[in-house]
Amino acid sequence: MSVSLACFAGVFVFGVFAGAVINEVVARLPPYMYRQWEGMAREILGLSADQQPQSSFNNPHSTTRRTLVAIVCGLLTVGVIHQFELSMESLAFIVLTWALLALSLIDADHKLLPDAIVLPLVWGGLIVNNFGFYTTSSAALWGAIGGYMSLWSVYWLFHLVTGKVAIGHGDFKLVSAIGAWGGWQILPVTVFLAALLGVLAYTLKWLLSVRSTTASTMVPFGPYLSAAGWIVMLYSMNRTLFPFA
C-alpha cells in the first residue's frame, strides 16, 4: 500500500508532537531518578529527610534544541513509514525510534540509560518478534542474550587487564534491546558501526575543541549504539542491502 504525501505530512506532524513529549521525558526523568537515589542514600546514611538534596537541575534545555529534537523526531517517524508503509511493523518501529531518541538524549546529557526505558525495550522486542515482525523469535531471544553478553565480556576483559571501567551497564542492556528487536545477526555490524561513529565523533570533538580533552573523559556510548542499531535494523529489512539478516 503506497503512502500519500498528505499521509506523510500527517505522520510528520504526529512525530513532531511525539518529539515534544520526548523533550519533556528527557528533561524530567533524570532529575526524578536522582531525587529517588538521593532519598535512598539519605535513608541509608541516616540523614534528615528535611535536608535539601545536593544536586540541582536548574538547566532547562534551550528552545532551539527542543525544536530540533521535535523536527528530527518528525523526520525519523516519516522515514519509518517510508520503509514499512502503514503497518503494525511500522507502528512498533516508531515506538522503538522514539525510545532510542530519548535514550540518546538522556545519555548525552547525563551519561545515563534509564532502566525505565531500556528494559521495556528488551521485552518489547521479544514480544513483537514472537509474531515475526522483524526476525524470528529464536533470533530475537539470542539477540537479547548475545547483545548483553558481548559487551559484558568486553567490560570484564578490559577491567581485568587495565583495572578501569570502559563501558556502562546501561550499554549492555541497550545492545540487548537492539538484539531483541533485530536479531543476533545484526549485532556485529551494529557494534562495529557504533564504535566507528563514536571514534569519529570523539576525533571531531577533539579537533574542534579549544580546551584539551583528557583521556579520562567519559564518552557516552548510548547515542552511537542507538543510531547504529536504528540504521542497521532499518536496512536489514532490505535483503539486497543487508543480506545477512
Description of the structure:
This protein has 245 residues and is mainly α. The chain has one domain. The chain contains eight helices and no strands.
Structure at a glance:
With 245 residues, this protein is mostly helical. The chain has helices at 5-45, 63-84, 88-110, 115-130, 137-162, 169-182, 187-208, 222-236.
Attribute tags:
245 residues; 8 helices; mainly alpha
**Total beta strand runs:** 0
Number of helices: 8
Backbone shape: globular
Order of helices and strands: HHHHHHHH
Residue-averaged pLDDT: 86
Question: From the alpha-carbon coordinates, what is the Rg to the nearest angstrom?
Answer: 19 Å
Strand content: under 5%
- Helix share, percent: over 70%
What number of structural domains do the residues give? 1
User: Major beta sheet, specifics?
Assistant: none
| Cα separation of the termini | 24 Å
Q: Helix/strand/pairing class, anyone?
A: mainly alpha
Low-confidence stretches: 240-245
List the helices and strands and how they pair.
Layout: H1 5-45, H2 63-84, H3 88-110, H4 115-130, H5 137-162, H6 169-182, H7 187-208, H8 222-236
Helix pairs in contact: 1-2, 1-3, 2-3, 3-4, 3-8, 4-5, 4-6, 5-6, 6-8, 7-8
